[in-house]
Structure prediction request, 399 residues.
Amino acid sequence: MSSVVVGVGGGIAAYKVAGLVRLFTEAGHDVTVVPTRAALQFVGEPTWAALSGNPVSTEVWDRVHQVNHVAVGKQADLVVIAPATADLMGRAAAGLADDLLTATLLTATCPLVFAPAMHTEMWMHPATVANVDTLRQRGAVVVEPDSGRLTGSDSGPGRLPEVEAIFRIATELLAPPDLAGLKIVVTAGGTREPIDPVRFLGNRSSGKQGYALAAAAARRGADVTLISANTSLPPPPDVAVVSVETAAQLATQVHKYATDADIIAMAAAVADFRPTEVSRVKLKKDSAAEPDTIALERNPDILLELVAARSSGQVVVGFAAETGDESAEVLEYGRKKLAAKGCDVLVVNDVSGGEVFDRHDNEVIVLDRFGGQRQYPRSDKSVVADQILDAVADYRDQD
Ligand code: CTP
Prediction:
């Protein structure tokens, strides 16, 4: 049984959230409902108390002797906000704590899921877009709203996602601590290969999938080291972060931590080439130092090195961004890469459609050395992270 907080925002879709509370209680979870003042205009306190079987508070002034504004968040295994209104997400993004729900969000270290519902104009407004982006950068899952008929005569994106869909995502994030006792090394981000003191060869990897993987593994009880190359993401809770810049530095750190690791996940985009020479001074145009060409040399293939050095029982996970005209083609490239790299598991990402970098969501196929193939629907990178870990845990059981 997990402790689930359902935070209810002040929108008409609050009435649908009664069904969500029911799904959680029927699944055996201990549910605390924290409605905002505005939410109580739509659905009253007795409904939430009866459905959850727990007392309901809105203000930080209730049960002060129990230091409720801290206790609710600290005890939670998961906080789900539904409906997440534009105002509520704005307050959460700004770090305000003017009611029990926003205070709870500041003290919770568990996964947070926001299920938005609002009119399309509000959802598309740059202020809301920026707030959603801030929440996602901090590791929260903000579910895409459904499109369809809204409260007035309008229609478009802004409908509360079906409560069954919210429940499915939430349940994925409530995975038990099944990775306790395991050491996991994750690499994330994109390496930079210097040309001179101010320029480098880089790539467009944001590091989001690797960070989500490290966060999910730590949440599931693993001892996680994240080797991070050039990201601007906040460190995930309970994860040791080692920062690197170049492929060579990444290789040194990975090999250092890999020796006693149970699982190594190479989510980083590693530059295959680096400039043969790095100029100590800035290369200036119209100077003697102006280069005609930049000569490149190969970086080591770290994944191949890890596979060669793999100890018994160690699982090495590679990642492959592939393009193809059809998904069959992407799969074929994935299978070939799995064989060429010799890793245990390969997470294949179809990047044919463009716009894949720096997104909050992802769609992967997980292949393994025994011929296993799992295809998952497009989901938030936090949910994808749990799916990858599920696949790796199953692979370890078979190995
Ligand atoms: N990788 C690595 N060292 C490198 C390049 C890639 O460890 N020098 C790892 C990545 O972290 C990833 C996997 O190899 O887990 C696949 O990366 P990818 O760039 O797709 O593979 P390449 O071997 O470079 O293949 P391609 O020729 O398709 O780019």
Q: What stands out?
A: The longest strand covers residues 315-322.
